[in-house]
Amino acid sequence: MKIICIGRNYADHISELENEKPKEPVIFLKPDTSILLKKQPFFIPDFSEDVHYEVEVLVKIKKVGKHIQEKFAHKYYDEIGLGIDFTARDLQQKLKEKGLPWEKAKAFDGAAVVGEKWLPKDSIADINMLNFRLEKNGETVQKGNTGLMLWKIDELIAYVSQFFTLKIGDIIFTGTPAGVGKVSVEDKLTGFIEEDQIFSIQTK
């Protein structure tokens, strides 16, 4: 399975990191080894002093597809989840300054939290107006709504499938809203879609 991540999909997050607004979706990949194992804490890596949380809505692909038209994209998933794209921000900044790929900052072991709970798409009134949030130690630090995405879920599936064949079990991270911040040892991170708790992890 592949983890396909979309960067810079919320205007307010682009602004907070002082990035340029892209003309098309920014895509990067994480290996399956980046998935944080169930019931395991997130261990802050020793190669970074500034690891950030980035909460994101996830989409799980349910059938193989290539060159998918946007009008048919809804047929390729029926579950919505939530996760965290952990980012070694200090390392990422150094790589960006040199024009190098981001993988060391984004794809390290444990850098992808995939919530254990998935919501049936049919149970969601409007997938393009979905509220989600991240709490750190009981305080809301990020909140977003899929209505603020620059590219909606079906648009992303159509776009990504031009470059990568989508396979059953592939997961798309759809981008993060503003409010990203540093994690410290013994932080508790809890993610919600509307009022459904999707994950809760501890940092070490």
From TrEMBL:
MF terms (GO), sorted A to Z: acetylpyruvate hydrolase activity; metal ion binding
Positions of the Fumarylacetoacetase-like C-terminal domain: 2-186
Organism: Salegentibacter holothuriorum
TM segment ranges: none
InterPro entries: Fumarylacetoacetase-like_C, Fumarylacetoacetase_C_sf
Keyword entries, A-Z: Metal-binding
Protein name per UniProt: 2-keto-4-pentenoate hydratase/2-oxohepta-3-ene-1,7-dioic acid hydratase (Catechol pathway)
